[in-house]
Amino acid sequence: MFMTTTETIPGREIELLGMVKGATIQSKNIGRDIGAGLKSIVGGELKGYTEMMEEARDMAVKRMIQEAEKLGADAIVCVRFSTSAIMPGAAEVMAFGTAVRYK
Predict the structure, then answer these.
(1) Please, what are the averages of pLDDT over each run of 10 residues along the chain (103 residues)?
(2) Which terminus in the chain has less CB density within 10 A, N or C?
């Protein structure tokens, strides 16, 4: 599935099918919390959290693509990501865009 953050695909005429989205909610675990707590003392990247957020983005994109495929889409344009805190220790990651079919 072709995805882009732009509104158009150069050289392609497209038909809009509708908005598609994918989301997941990830929570911290004790191992990541301990590592993050220690890292906050000395500074630096919180690799456990970075990996967690990468996994969450990948899952959200996968779910968005599945929704687009159900519509018969060839591509998704205007792809965006959103994150929000759901509760202490848990965050939602959402991927969304517009499913399109090539004319």
Answers:
(1) 97 97 84 53 73 92 98 98 86 96 96
(2) C
Could you identify the residue written with the tokens 């805190």? Answer: 85
Q: DSSP assignment, residue 10?
A: T
Which of 25-31's residues contact partners 24+ apart within 8 Å by CB, and which partners? 25/86, 25/90, 25/91, 25/92, 25/93, 26/52, 26/53, 26/55, 26/56, 26/90, 26/91, 26/93, 27/89, 27/90, 28/52, 28/89, 28/90
CATH code for residues 2-102: 3.30.110.70
pLDDT of residue 92: 94
Q: Where are the domains of the chain?
A: 2-102
